[in-house]
């Protein structure tokens, strides 16, 4: 079994953390952290939405579809472009079919149907994307990462991953050294 460190929960919101279930999304070797229904069940549980039943292949497909729709919408809005109608339609569909267990899960019993969990996650994303917290969204400056995260400091260039920040700082340091006049 993989450790709980396999997932990232440092993005500032559950919906943003869902985006991190696919790492290096824009690089040559993306990392899929939800390759199985078991991994999806672990992520949901760690995110506070312990599934009330076994996660199915169809559930996994819906989780991944929601993740990619959220990524499309967030990145489009940050680039001041229109999100795809398909992504917006999927979000609308997920929110409207969220099921009756969203409120009890949000109040702390920690269990929800996959449908209710996805509805709550999509609703959280829509509140962020349509409200003032949208201004807190940043995209990691690492070209292969580009993870969307919430930056409450207003100063971050890289996502909370130490590797992205380290690579970025090293690259910036080398660029400064290369452009400095030699003595």
Give a structural overview.
It is built from seven helices and six strands, in the order H-E-E-H-E-H-H-H-E-H-E-E-H. With 183 residues, the chain is mainly alpha-helical. Strand 5 (137-139) and strand 6 (148-150) form a beta hairpin. The longest helix has 22 residues, at 57-78. The model has no long low-confidence stretch (mean pLDDT 85).
Shape: globular
Q: Major beta sheet, specifics?
A: 2 strands, antiparallel
- What's the tally of helices? 7
CA-CA gap between termini:
55 Å
Radius of gyration: 18 Å
Spell out the helices and strands N to C: HEEHEHHHEHEEH
Portion in helices: 40-55%
Mean pLDDT across the residues is: 85
Global structural class: mainly alpha
Order of strands, widest sheet: 1-2
Low-confidence stretches: none
Quick one: how many beta strands? 6
- Bin the strand percentage: 5-15%
Short structural description:
The protein is mostly helical. Helices cover 51% and strands 8% of the residues. It is built from 7 helices and 6 strands, in the order H-E-E-H-E-H-H-H-E-H-E-E-H.
Provide key terms for this protein.
7 helices; mainly alpha; 183 residues; 6 strands; two-stranded parallel sheet
Q: SSE layout and pairings?
A:
Blueprint lengths: L13 H6 L2 E2 L7 E2 L4 H10 L3 E2 L5 H22 L6 H12 L5 H8 L1 E2 L1 H17 L6 E3 L8 E3 L11 H18 L4
Parallel strand pairs: 3-4
Antiparallel strand pairs: 1-2, 5-6
Helix pairs in contact: 3-4, 3-6, 4-6
